Amino acid sequence: MDVIHITSPIDAKTIKELTVGTPVLISGVIYTARDAAHKRLVQALDKREKLPFPLRGQTIYYTGPSPARPGRIIGSAGPTTSTRMDIYTPRLLAAGIRAMIGKGSRSMEVREAMQKYKAVYFVATGGAGALLAQCIKKVEIIAYDDLGPEAIRLLTVENFPAIVANDIYGEDLFEQGKAKYRREGK
Amino acid sequence: MTPKLREIKASDITETVAQLCQRANFELDEDVLAALKQAQQTEESPLGKEVLHQLIENAQIAERKNLPLCQDCGTAVVFLEVGQEAHIVGGDLYAAVTEGVRQGYTQGYLRKSMVSQPFSARKNTKDNTPPVIHAEIVPGDRVRVICLPKGGGSENMSKLAILRPGDGREGIIDLVVRIVDEVGANSCPPLIIGLGIGPTAEGAMLLAKKALLRPLGKPNPDSEVAELEKELLSRINDLGIGPLGLGGSTTALAVHAEVRPTHITSLPIAINFQCHSARHKEARL
């Protein structure tokens, strides 16, 4: 399998090259946000308030890291289940989010929104938080500090491993993979 | 004759729980690691193999660096088997366990994930308390303590159903296979499936959780139950969900079923999902 090196924020040209099942190594900046932060981001959009970071073109990583030990910048930081974010995601995609990293499949509504707004969804290995933390080189809390692990952090990552699970062409790795290896009912 | 009671200090319980919470989060059990390595050999999907490779490497990094295996350090579920001739001195048993969780999660830099008032404020309690404590009285004068940090992603997929007695074995198989098919991809496979069959609604779920404590892949001693476990494992691995749900032949590492007598009208079945980060450590005092 050929691995593609990509830079985040991901440009519009690269997005077109990402197809389902492709392993990638992501370098650059990504923002962490999960349940509570999503709720606040959408509330801010609804009220037309200032957002903690400009969403356009950015990558969101669904993670709530464990605390850093003294002398370290972060604890474990693997992906959380993405379906819980599905109710907020179409709003954020409409506002310009171009990529998401999480684990597990997405709703049909989110998949349609990804096609419409030309965004992709990557999966990172759920439960590999210690491994993935090794790719995080810099951490800065930029908003919602009161949410603790759910605060929005700006991460600088190097060679963060992920796999394209939904692309801008409407394909879905979960469906494809399951169909390919399924023996039940055959 | 009055039996002689053996004294166990509450402070020792606290210290033990604090240690177990940390070790469970840093050290993946040998049996789980062995199962992941075995699966890496047999997995048909290249992406699935890569995921399993990452999980094995993750376990090595976590242990070497005292980093949690998963950032979700779980709800602290603590099982206590208290010998009827054991006497806890110097404090309240449940308070001692709670203090142990507080200390373990703080000292170990583990993520604190508990929120109060689940339906409204959802305010973080900041020390991962309260734990969920299941205590039972057993013969003897020892106390066995098992800490099972339970991740939210897999726990959220759990299911309870009360089947009709006539649904029988086939009904159980159909239900379990269908539920895993529906939600397995989002509960961090490869999974360990805990099943509780009988006795009542709440009893079934507790049995399902306890089934997760069994050494990985060790069959139920009752051969009929062991056969059911084996058939279910095979059917689940035929679903094609695979590691992380990306497709493959390893959807579950094991199915553990516990069975108890039930009421003439009932066939309760609980499914408790355990992700591959199957963490639990125990000690005997």
What's this model, at a glance?
Chain A has helices at about 10-15, 35-45, 90-95, 110-115, 130-135, 175-180, and strands at about 5-10, 25-30, 60, 100, 120-125, 135-145, 150-165. Chain A is an alpha/beta fold and about 190 residues long.
What does this structure look like?
The complex is a heterodimer of chains A (186) and B (285). Chain A is 26% helix and 26% strand. Chain A starts with a strand and ends in a 5-residue tail after the last helix. The mean pLDDT of chain A is 94. Chain A has one domain (4-181): fumarase (Alpha-Beta Barrel), CATH 3.20.130. Chain A has 6 helices and 7 strands, in the order βαβαβαβαβαββα. Chain A is α/β, with parallel strands linked by helices. With 285 residues, chain B is α/β, with parallel strands linked by helices. Chain B has 2 domains: 6-25 and 69-150, no CATH class; 153-277, 2-Layer Sandwich (60s Ribosomal Protein L30, Chain: A), CATH 3.30.1330. Chain B is built from 8 helices and 12 strands. In chain B, the strands form 4 sheets. A 4-stranded mixed sheet of chain B has the order 6-2-7-12. Chain B starts with 5 loop residues before the first strand and ends with a strand. Classes of the chains: A alpha/beta (186), B alpha/beta (285). At the A-B interface, helix 5, strand 7 and helix 6 of A face helix 3 of B.
CATH topology tier name of the largest domain in chain B? 60s Ribosomal Protein L30, Chain: A
Helix tally of chain A equals: 6
**What's the N-to-C terminus distance of chain B?**
25 Å
CATH C-level class of chain A? Alpha Beta
Strand order of the largest sheet of chain A: 2-3-4-5-7
Overall geometry of chain B: globular
Indicate the CATH topology of chain A.
Answer: fumarase
Helix tally of chain B equals: 8
Quick one: biggest sheet of chain A?
A: 5 strands, mixed, barrel
Q: Count the domains of chain B.
A: 2
What structural category do the secondary elements of chain A indicate?
A: alpha/beta
Structural class of chain B: alpha/beta
Mean pLDDT of chain A: 94
Low-confidence stretches of chain A: none
Count the domains of chain A. Answer: 1
CATH class of the largest domain in chain B: Alpha Beta
CATH superfamily of chain A, please? Fe-S hydro-lyase, tartrate dehydratase beta-type, catalytic domain
How is the main sheet of chain B built? 4 strands, mixed
